[in-house]
Amino acid sequence: MKKLFSIVFFLLVSALLFAQNKLVITVTDSTGQEKLQGVSIAIVKTKKGGTTDSSGRLILNNIPNGKQAISFSIIGYKAKTVDFVFPLDNPEVTIIMEKAEEEKMEEVIVSSSRTESRIENLPTKVEVLGAEEVSEEVGIKPGSIASLLGDVAGIQTQQTSAATGNTEMRVQGLPGKYTQILKDGMPLFGGYSGSFSI
Questions:
Q1: pTM for this entry
Q2: For 37-41, which contacts have Cβ atoms below 8 Å and span 24 or more sequence positions?
Q3: Is it the case that residue 167 has pLDDT exceeding 70?
Q4: In angstroms, rounded to a whole number, what is the distance separating the alpha carbons of residues 105 and 181?
């Protein structure tokens, strides 16, 4: 009988110790009393929690008995921690959050200067195709330099029409309309930007 009594007593005590509580939290703004969505709420000891929905509510389940600290945080508002002693008489609580003071940014000074160098004298990338490479490509497909230009770094060629054989050339990823081909310093294919027939 004594053994049975101790087992029943142990079960009752363990049930009381591991009793789980429910808390319904509504978070509002201190100025306009509007419901705050996206507030991060967490029980400090267990790290369990969640975020409030569009109505500013969150339901926390399985909260152990005793004193529990619950933290509240959202960008633009002061973070706060509130202590609750479970079980509560009323499982529905309203938390009011105050807006954080706006931090003033430091003054930024932007300055610029000029140099005496001219744009013509600035270093630019120049790649020379030798006679050997040109003759090799001419042997493969005479009268077309599209495949030859495709071997140059930073240039991509893409056939735009199967019927006419027009080819678009992209330099550094820009569309063909931003590319101009010159022959002896004179522009070629001026009316066909983006479709050069090269």
A1: 0.45
A2: 38/74, 39/72, 39/73, 39/74, 39/77, 39/97, 40/71, 40/72, 40/73, 40/74, 41/70, 41/71, 41/72
A3: yes
A4: 49
